[in-house]
Design goal:
alpha/beta; seven-stranded parallel sheet
Length: about 425
């Protein structure tokens, strides 16, 4: 089969399925992206395109996102046309993320080629990020700005032949009229490689011995240290955690940028802001900011963690949460609807009020003080991910079935290929 994947930041959600298709053999794969230095996959034709148009700084706020989306969408469509003209590549199916508008004009290029679109988030005034933090004021213009952002999925539901949502909560964010045109299935977690390891160790520059599961290690992981992922809540919980657990070490993964929501107005970002707020009450010799680390190091960190903290406002679930569950981490997470989809309190993890740093501190202290009392949580968490979100046995068959349902039978992908 000829497949074209489209994602602004290659490979995005398609890393595992592209690698599986390559290993299976017999397929022609192209990938269209804006990423300047995308990862290399042997056997994948990678096409990098630049947006045809970028809105100016003074662009009208209600149309700026759509203006940017159409600039990306037109350029992506022209790149697709060039792919066929120069290389004779016309896909049997297009699989891509709709969020940045890249798929918007693909039916104008190939009206007869089916498209599966990844629908990640629909902006609503209630139940999501907006208004969740009582400390933040919601602008009177927020409903209009959010609906303006929704112009992209509203247009693309008519572009795609089928939509995909990774979780039920994300699907339910979209209008009911979308639901019968979508299927719910996660990208997939490689539970065959993400496994617990009792012998895991990790060396840190300032320590004279590697950390192991014998150490009292507390971990926190996010792409960036920001409020959407609860970094400020973590920092406010640290003074009590470190005070009551004098041997604990806290390992924090995350960049100093912002992926979601607004930026801190303080120079140095939210990390500097929180250091100034709670810094005098923290023993910094036991707090390690590791930045964004290689994936194998992330695995070791989770495998040796005695308590793994996952915080988020109501938003898209992080892959790192499900990956940590697959590695049997004992997880303390924020009690919000998207998290409840994979964690049941007391069964597969522990849930606390996102807004209550003291509750977070108490729960973490309980876990690291008596890990045996919570030893059942990790295996149950792994069991849940294996049953519902494993890539090879659960998600891959579903995705291939959906692809096969849109192409001629002679071109179908066999799961045992």
């Amino acid at each position: 089969m000829k497949l074209l994947f489209v994602h602004q930041n290659m490979p995005g959600q398609y890393r595992e399925i592209v690698q599986w298709l390559l290993a299976a053999g017999g397929h022609e794969i192209a990938f269209l992206t804006q990423r300047r230095n995308p990862p290399k996959f042997d056997g994948v034709r990678t096409i990098i395109y630049k947006p045809h148009h970028v809105p100016g700084k003074d662009a009208y706020g209600l149309s700026k996102v759509w203006e940017e989306a159409t600039g990306s969408g037109f350029s992506a469509a022209m790149a697709a046309r060039k792919l066929e003209r120069d290389h004779g590549f016309k896909p049997d199916i297009v699989v891509g993320h709709v969020g940045w508008g890249e798929l918007t004009f693909f039916k104008q290029v190939w009206p007869d080629v089916p498209i599966i679109g990844y629908f990640e988030y629909y902006y609503n005034l209630h139940g999501g990020l907006v208004g969740f933090d009582p400390a933040e004021t919601v602008s009177d213009h927020a409903p209009f700005l959010m609906q303006a952002r929704n112009a992209i999925p509203l247009a693309n539901i008519e572009t795609v032949d089928l939509g995909q949502c990774p979780t039920q909560w994300q699907r339910d964010r979209f209008p009911a009229s979308f639901h019968d045109r979508m299927y719910v299935c996660h990208d997939g977690i490689r539970t065959d490689t993400l496994v617990p390891d009792a012998d895991a160790s990790l060396s840190l520059g300032r320590l004279d011995h590697p950390l192991t599961r014998e150490d009292e290690v507390i971990t926190y992981v996010a792409r960036n240290l920001e409020k959407t992922r609860g970094f400020h809540v973590l920092m406010r919980a640290l003074p009590r955690i470190l005070r009551e657990r004098p041997k604990a070490r806290v390992l924090i993964i995350g960049g100093n940028d912002v992926s979601y929501g607004g930026k801190s107005e303080r120079p140095g970002g939210l990390r500097r802001e929180m250091e100034e707020e709670v810094g005098q009450d923290i023993d910094w010799s036991r707090v390690h900011f590791l930045g964004q680390i290689p994936y194998p190091e992330f695995q070791k960190l989770v495998q040796l963690s005695r308590c793994h903290i996952y915080l988020t406002m109501p938003f898209v679930l992080s892959w790192s949460l499900m990956e940590a569950m697959a590695m049997q981490a004992t997880i303390v997470a924020s009690d919000v609807l998207p998290v409840r989809e994979v964690i049941t309190h007391g069964e597969t993890g522990l849930l606390v009020d996102f807004h209550d740093p003291n509750a977070l501190a108490q729960q973490v202290i309980d876990v690291v003080s008596d890990p045996g009392a919570f030893a059942h949580l990790g295996p149950a968490a792994r069991g849940h991910i294996v049953q519902h979100h494993d890539f090879l046995t659960r998600c891959l068959p579903e995705h291939l079935a959906r692809i096969n349902g849109l192409v001629p039978k002679a071109k179908e992908i066999r799961i045992d290929a």
